[in-house]
Amino acid sequence: MSQALDAILGYRFTRSDLPREALTHRSALQGKRSAPGSSKTSNERLEFIGDRVLGLLIAEWLAERFPDEQEGELGRRLASLVSQPVLAQVAETIGLGEALSVAPGEARAGVKRRATVLADALEAALGAIYLDGGLEPAREFVRRAWDGAMTAQAAPPKDAKTTLQEWAQKRGLELPEYAVSARSGPPHAPVFEVTVTVGEWRGTGTAGSKRAAEQLAAEHLYGSLPS
Q1: The whole model's pTM is what?
Q2: pLDDT in tens, 60-117
Q3: 33, 111, 136, 172: most buried by Cβ count inside 10 Å?
Q4: 177 catalytic, yes or no?
Q5: Helices (H) then strands (E): counts for the chain
Q6: Which is the catalytic residue, given 51, 106, 193, 219?
Q7: Among this protein's residues, is 120 annotated catalytic?
Q8: Whole-angstrom Cα distance, residue 97 to residue 112?
Q9: Catalytic option among 47, 106, 123, 159
Q10: Domains of the chain, start order
Q11: Angle of helix 84-94 relative to helix 135-145, nearest 10 degrees?
């Protein structure tokens, strides 16, 4: 498993436990005793680390590449480059999905091709590189793997709410309506679930602020709409 991930990522691991963990979907651990040499942990913890490393490295790269752009423009670029669709495309391009370890039933159901699974695995792989070799090899991998997505951004992408609103207006529909459908967490760390509705379509998003949840809801809905 280590050699497989080495080849996919173009990085040679010194710790064999990290690639095993990065390639282990949580379904592979359900109801099973760990075989000798197998991972006892799914890739969720590495995904958590990789998500933060990716945000830092993409932000650094954007600041270098677009020195005249302001925070809002850079923020929209960042949100796009670390979004699930882009991560899933990068993972698919490098062939990461086929190396994943999943439960047999999940494999038959095509879980290795799901965008959310591919995106999570890519973040986990990045987290593994960072823990094994530090920031520099992680930076080299990101700049190699995201090069196509980065160079394709001629102009800052529009935010999801603006894109969704324009979609509705072009079709003569009423503007998107946003509503807080649930709130949880303590006062100092609230979690908002927002629902957005356009005509017969609906999307949801959950985040630590209403504004962020609205953006995620718009992104979720727009991704499922007909073109």
Answers
A1: 0.71
A2: 999 999 999 999 889 889 988 998 888 989 999 999 988 888 787 777 777 778 888 8
A3: 111
A4: no
A5: 11, 3
A6: 51
A7: no
A8: 5
A9: 123
A10: 2-151 (1.10.1520.10), 160-222 (3.30.160.20)
A11: 90
